[in-house]
Amino acid sequence: MEASLKGKIALVTGASRGAGRGIAVELGKAGATVYVTGRSTRGKSTNGWPGTIDDTAEQIEAAGGKGIAVRCDHTNDSETAGVIEQIRREHGKLDILVNNIWGAHDHSIDDKPFWELSLKNWDTMFTAGVRAQLATNHFAIPLLRENSQALIIHTTFWDEYKYTGHFYYDLAKNALTRMSYGVSIELKQDNIAVIAVSPGFMRTELVLNYHQTDEDHWQEDEDLKHTETPYYIGRGIQALARDPEVMKKSGQIITAGDLAKEYRFTDIDGRVIPPFKL
Predict the structure, then answer these.
(1) What secondary structure does DSSP assign to 83-146, as a single string?
(2) Which residues contact 264 (CB under 8 A, 6 or more apart)?
(3) Structural domains of the chain ordered from first start
(4) Which of 195, 177, 187, 188 is nearest to 241 (CA)?
(5) Three-state SS sequence of 178-242
(6) What does the DSSP 8-state code read for residue 18?
(7) What is the pLDDT along the chain (278 residues), one digit of tens a residue?
(8) DSSP code string of 237-268
(9) Which residue, 73, 90, 78, is CA-closest to 35?
């Protein structure tokens, strides 16, 4: 495996908090220059949630990496195109794209049949999730194709073909895994690996808030016993980005737990968390 990602340019979308932040920080630790995008900026966080792209960029810098925060609403195609244009202008290339944007947190989802829910629930998952990831691919792939090799990651959820229990969520996440597979076929001749990566139950900022706890006290909550930090999937994606034979995995759906077993890494607390199962 390559020692570092020094000289590599990465883009992680939806990196204000959660998985996006964990992934961006781990890529930065490995030496990559990481562009982080999202809507939350210092003093103007979406819905007042903890975490901004500025915080993420600073955390990357504190870990010894290079972080560049760019505010972007990925439901706005011109803003997404602008990010790619900025990367081209400032670095002339893009090596790693992590499609992590996901807008479904903007509306709470009740435990009801989908026909009893507002279509806004689907709109946020599709427009700010599935379509936003597709649009980022659309604008980024021409730049990625200029490399001799590159990597695209889609974060999703996957537990074989088990139904997640929520129609909109299940449909959106399966669309992302299928998108990853289709793009992998389209880009095979360009030596661009495209992989869907599924985390387990993550202790994101929003999950900790929901359970009224924090990273120092989560063990006291029985519901969080099998959770992992967002840095766990981050370490998995870092390992994929450093693997010179990553093309062999193109088109696959891989869990963070399986990546931990293969590449022999742990979560930040030293645990190896097995793949999440419904």
Answers:
(1) HHHHHHHHHS---EEEE----GGGS---SS-GGGS-HHHHHHHIIIIIIHHHHHHHHHHHHHTT
(2) none
(3) 9-263 (3.40.50.720)
(4) 195
(5) HHHHHHHHHCHHHCEEEEEEECCCECCHHHHHHCCCCCCCHHHCHHHCCCECHHHHHHHHHHHHH
(6) H
(7) 556 999 999 999 999 999 999 999 999 999 999 999 999 888 887 777 788 999 999 999 999 999 999 999 999 999 999 999 999 999 999 999 999 998 766 555 677 889 998 898 888 889 999 999 999 999 999 999 999 999 999 999 988 888 888 899 999 999 999 999 999 999 999 999 999 999 989 888 788 887 888 888 888 788 888 889 999 999 999 999 999 999 999 999 999 999 999 999 999 999 999 998 88
(8) HHHHHH-TTGGGGTT-EEEHHHHHHHHT---T
(9) 90
Q: For residue 234, what are its two tokens?
A: 């981050």
Rounded Cα gap, residues 81 and 244, in angstroms: 29
Length of the chain: 278
